[in-house]
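Encode chain A's predicted structure.
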Amino acid sequence: MYSPDEKRKAIELFIKYDHSATAVVDELGYPSRGLLYIWHRQYQELGEKAFANRMPRYDDEEKRIAVEHCFEHGRCLARAMRMLGCPKSSELLSNWARELEPGRSKPKRAARTFAHEQGKSAAIDLESRRSSADEVAKKHGAGRELVYSWRRGLLGKGGSGMDRGKPLPSDASELQAQIAQLKEQVRRLELEKDILEGTVGILKKGQGADPASLTDKEKADLIGALRPRCMLKDLLDALQMPRSSCQCALVAKARPGKYAEIRAAIADVFIASRRCCGYRRIWLALKNGGTTVSEKAVSRIMREGGFVAKRAKRRTYSSYSGEVSQAPGSLVKRRFHAAAPNRLWLTDVAEFRTPAGKACLSPVIGCYDGMVVACSTSTSPSAELANSMPMSAVSTLKPGERPVTRSDRGGHCRWPEWVRICEDSGLVRSMSKKGCSPDNSACEGFFGRMKVEMSYGERWAGWTTSDFMDEIDEYIRWYNGSRIKKSLGGKSPIEYREEGVNAA
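Encoded structure for chain A:
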């Protein structure tokens, strides 16, 4: 394959380039890297003998036997190579046959010729769709590709150029008219399909909805969505809509809707509420501000605008276990309502986990209006946290007020110091059953709302525990003064309490 001079040059460059086969192949364009390594190894073993021409691989007798076997067994090169095991190349065996038996080579099949009228008849049969392409080809004794070539030549769409420059026969003209009619039907069917799919997918109509029964606004929306791939005239005809009606609907759509101002107000209220208010509280806030709108409209606008209130994650239940000391009985019976302030208090301890560490909150919540009467924060549920909370709450009491203080059976509410503070301050202790969180559900509900509205979904990376506890204090101030409650008639706890005091 390669001459001795080519091998010698390749080896010399291989040695010159510090045995870099890639550099040699890039410069010479031959051989492969593996073959170059073989040449170099042969040169190291044989020296100049490596460049000598090799002896012929096959002798004359082997060539003769291979050629005779080939002609005696159907002139099949592959069969002869498979039976004899040589040579390894069909091209080489073919060269041997031409060399030894020049007159016995297999003659080439003469190309078949077809009449011009036969090609025209086959093309018409194929285009008329009276038979399949295979049947037409078999009928006329030609291949599928040739039949299609005849059709292209007859219809003037390329091919061999049959009848090029000549008028088409009458049957071909009629055939073209049928083709154009079929194409128009296909285009209209595709248009109807797009309209039906748009009615269901774009307008969110049910299956089987009639596009003709749509409103002008819905038709205009559908036309606007399908306009990039369909002609406007075709869409108007299919939807039975005048052009003027479509223009009026598009102009009306471009104008701001009647809820434009309300949408902006809803967005402002939602953001101001820490993105935690649902449509009912948003509606109450708008009502208090003098805006008249239905709850359903607020719900729809929030859904369209993507205003989704925060929700709590589902968590597994873990009950309290263990007894520290004697606990008082339940005086509340899950009736978390009070006729006046400072009649019934709720308390508990909640934990918040942040990347910087843990923060604990111990509040006192009034059942009259849900106000956080007092609270204390710490990095752990320590005695200082438990003791400072009732002392802060007691400082807000008026003379003669002795509220019932409801808590769970946690150790922070059963420590001797906490019990002493409650007795000295005149607080009436009440505890829930062991491991029964519904007995203190109002306080647990406050913690759930607080975590959803303030903690969940927020990124606290880079915040210290001190910063987080400051954020807790800020949230409680907002909760008491700005967060409206539906149970309070759309008022915040402070507004509701002040209104009650003024009324009294």
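Residues 158-168 have pLDDT under 50 and may be disordered.
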